[in-house]
Amino acid sequence: MSINKELNLSKKIVYDITKFTTLDYKENLACIVWFVSCNMRCQYCYNCNIIEAKEGNYLLSDLFSFLEKRVGLLDAVVLSGGEATVHNLIPICKKIKAMGFKIKLDTNGVNFDLIKQLVKENYLDYIALDFKATKSKFKTITNSNCFEDFLKTLKYLLKINFEFEVRTTLHGDLLQEEDINEIIDILFNLGYKKDFYIQNFLNVETYANLNEAKNTFNKNKLSNKLNIIWRN
Question: 12, 153, 174, 221: most buried by Cβ count inside 10 Å?
Answer without folding.
Answer: 153
